[in-house]
Specification:
There is one protein chain. By secondary structure, the chain is of the alpha/beta class. Helix content is 32%, strand content 19%. It contains twelve helices and 13 strands. It has helices at residues 18-27, 34-42, 58-67, 134-138, 146-157, 191-202, 222-231, 246-252, 261-275, 293-303, 328-340, 361-366, and strands at 73-81, 86-93, 98-106, 115-119, 123-125, 140-143, 178-181, 214-218, 236-240, 279-285, 308-314, 345-347, 376-379. The strands form two sheets. Strands 12-11-10-9-8-7-4-3-2-1-13 form an eleven-stranded mixed beta sheet. Strand 7 (178-181), helix 6 and strand 8 form a beta-alpha-beta unit. Helix 5 crosses helix 6 (191-202) and helix 10 (293-303) packs across helix 11. The protein is elongated. Bound molecules: S-adenosyl-L-homocysteine and iron/sulfur cluster (SF4).
Length: 380
């Protein structure tokens, strides 16, 4: 008996082009308004499957379930901490790869609205190989599809938060959220699919997340930054700088050997000039490596005079490296030097450390272990 080739996976509802869905519906004799109805229903927080789209005829729900995948990811773990302000999910893909996404809530204070940020992955693994990053240490597995990227956002849009308490929903209770490409992977090394995912996220028939609420973080893929200027002018850009000179950056962010600091910052300045959007320069502070006052002064010199700001992140140590984060006093001193040079500077909140929220760490910890079949809520 000859073995049949494996069937291609069904198209995912999160990435199916509306025109294709419309043609599929038309072929079934459905009225034109069904396209918007199906897309709207599938992106509602309360929907856990096509069966929940109760405004559709039962036979159509069944047919949709046979023709499309409701999700491309299966969530195996959800870990919660910080008084339920931070949660991290491990998602398993169709081929068994695992990726991560994180949800962080900042409560509103002093008249400011509460803010929810969803941090998503763009690749399974990463080929850039930054030695301080758990994803980089694990290497590259494969690109994520647009559907796999969008489905991470949809995960937080849908059910797991319900188990965490009625006030958890980022969408229903707080109105909007921000999305940052700061999970696993280098988004601009997967630019076509990431750009398509952003288009899908923007689509008003789907989630309708405004481009201004989306940030792409890159280790410095210059052609990708150039494409952002031309194709995604409303999306925010963060550049992971981490060192003020090429010698150190060659080690910390190895892609620097291809696109050195001058080239990356030239692309960043063009982005700022054309889009009039402030570029965030990310700088992980590693004890006794890149945190000396002289390095702060050199960083400030690179950031001064154009629309940028510096975001300092104390290193979250990974098991695969001997480095540790700069202690709080050192972080304050470093920030002071940058600020005194006239450059806006913030220190990133390291919330989520308890649940290994930095880049790929949980993934590394779980590698090779069997996962439970149902989402596992693990309070910290
Ligand atoms: N590949 C992209 C986006 C994903 S990494 C990039 O590098 O920008 C998102 C951010 O997390 C980057 O700024 C990265 O340098 C940072 N990061 C990675 N490992 C970290 C760690 N162990 N501690 C603190 N920040 C880390
Ligand atoms: Fe890749 Fe970013 Fe990690 Fe570097 S920091 S290895 S670019 S995910």
């Amino acid at each position: 008996m000859t073995e049949l080739p494996l069937a291609a996976p069904l198209p995912a509802i999160s990435e199916v082009p509306p025109s294709l869905l419309a043609a599929w519906l038309a072929a079934r004799g459905e009225p034109a308004f069904r396209t918007a109805q199906v897309l709207g229903g599938a992106h509602r927080p309360s929907a856990a499957g096509f069966a929940d789209l109760s405004d559709l005829p039962g036979s159509l729900r069944g047919a949709l379930a046979e023709a499309f995948r409701f999700s491309t990811i299966r969530t195996s773990h959800v870990l919660v901490t910080d008084d339920r302000l931070t949660a991290k999910a491990v998602h398993e893909l169709g081929d068994g790869q695992r990726i991560e996404s994180v949800l962080m809530r900042a409560p509103g204070s002093g008249g400011r609205r509460p803010r929810t940020t969803i941090c998503i992955s763009s690749q399974a693994g990463c080929a850039v190989g930054c030695p301080f990053c758990a994803t980089g240490q694990a290497g590259f597995a494969r690109q994520l599809t647009p559907g796999e990227i969008v489905d991470q956002v949809l995960h937080w849009h849908r059910s797991p938060w319900q188990a965490l308490g009625a006030d958890w929903s980022p969408t229903q209770r707080e109105g909007h959220y921000n999305i940052v490409f700061m999970g696993m992977g280098e988004p601009l090394a997967n630019a076509d699919r990431v750009f398509r995912a952003i288009e899908l996220l923007n689509d008003r028939r789907r989630l309708g997340v405004g481009a201004r609420h989306i940030t792409v973080s890159t280790s410095g893929v210059v052609p990708g930054i150039d494409r952002m200027v031309d194709e995604l002018a409303q999306v925010n850009l963060a550049i992971s700088l981490h060192a003020p000179d090429d010698e150190l950056r060659d080690r910390l962010v190895p892609i620097n050997r291809k696109w050195p600091i001058a080239a990356v910052l030239e692309a960043g300045r063009r982005f700022a000039r054309v889009t009039r959007r402030r570029v965030s320069l990310e700088y992980v502070l590693i004890d006794n490596l890149n945190d000396a006052p002289g390095q702060a002064a050199r960083l400030a010199a690179l950031a001064r005079g154009w629309l940028s700001h510096v975001n300092l992140i104390p290193l979250n140590p990974t098991p695969g490296s001997a480095w540790s984060g700069t202690p709080a006093a050192g972080v304050r001193a470093f920030a002071e030097v940058v600020r005194n040079a006239g450059v806006p500077v913030t220190v990133r909140d390291t919330r989520g450390r308890e649940i290994e929220a930095a880049c790929g760490q949980l993934h590394a910890q779980l590698a090779g272990r069997p996962l439970p079949s149902r989402p596992d809520l693990v309070p910290a």
